[in-house]
UniProtKB/TrEMBL annotation:
GO molecular function, one term: nucleic acid binding
InterPro entries in UniProt: DDH_dom (IPR001667), DHH_sf (IPR038763), DHHA1_dom (IPR003156), Oligoribo/pAp-PDE_c-di-AMP_PDE (IPR051319)
All residue ranges annotated as the DHHA1 domain in the record: 216-316
Residue ranges of every copy of the DDH domain listed in the record: 13-154
Record organism: Acetitomaculum ruminis DSM 5522
PANTHER family noted in UniProt: BIFUNCTIONAL OLIGORIBONUCLEASE AND PAP PHOSPHATASE NRNA
Pfam family name, one: DHH
Top-level taxon in the UniProt lineage: Bacteria
Protein name: Phosphoesterase RecJ domain-containing protein
Amino acid sequence: MSKLDNELINMKNIAISGHINPDGDCVGACLGLYNYILKNFEGVNVDVYLEPIPAIFDFLKGSSDIKNQYNENNTYDLYIALDCSDIKRLGIFGDYYKKAKHTLCIDHHITNDESFADVCYIQPHRSSACELLYTLMDSEKINKDIAECIYTGMVTDSGVFQYGSTTSETMNIAGKMMDMGIDFPTIVNRVFFQKTFTQNKMLARAINNAKVAADGKILYSIVTKKEMDECNAKPKDLEGCVSHLRSTKGVVASVLMYQNPEGTFKVSLRSEKETDVASIAAKFGGGGHKNAAGCTILENPEEKMKEIVSMIEKELN
Ligand code: 5GP
Ligand code: MN
């Protein structure tokens, strides 16, 4: 029996959640698991709880079943957290997670706090939570819908198989998903290349506002609330912009800061190779991966940016 089936067996009422501000890996893993349980475990009730997901993932099977509000009347035998490094990252579902009879965490963040679930499968070397999830599944029990979810998560977190976290096993698993007949060019196009005009305008702001440090090895940028309001942009419209800063020739690390509606500031960090930004994000209460991490700060964005840039400079030396 597969490791995942072993955890699911005898469970009759299961809840699934991923991290706040869900991305393709989080949505893909939650829906991949949801479809796997529905297909293979008859008579089991399964609910997926997530914050509203970006519309680009609406094509994934089960996306319309996702609940944004917890069903207070339900007590779950098992609550599974996916692509989520700590209880805080479950947002409003964190308190309910703790109330389930059993908890399971499947994650690939290096900063994972293993103490928040009864059973943990944490493998930071995995390029995505979806890749890890697949290795725990029974491969004979996967269909095309599940393969689409897994592939979506894999391409999201590996930057379409370009980041250093990509391994030959990543490619082998992606190949198996392709063999299931998924429309992978459309998935890649939807997830990576279709940008709204607002997203492109925000990218322009992020690049325009960028400043250089460490002789061009660091690019950092703050996009103000006023600039976002001018374009009617939401924080989601700035996702991915930090990677564009990082992809500038000679740049080893990039930082992007922008304001959340409630006034806090989202910080995204990207780096390459041995430059570890996860440890820097962790110092500000955040986390992530060595080359892609984030945190939230409450105030003083300029001052905090200086601190973060100087920490990266030390990391470079
Ligand atoms: P992004 O910059 O795209 O929001 O996030 C990059 C990576 O860092 C993702 O793997 C994400 O899960 C993680 N991350 C982003 N923000 C936070 C945070 O506030 N706390 C933790 N623990 N991880 C974060
Ligand atoms: Mn992930």
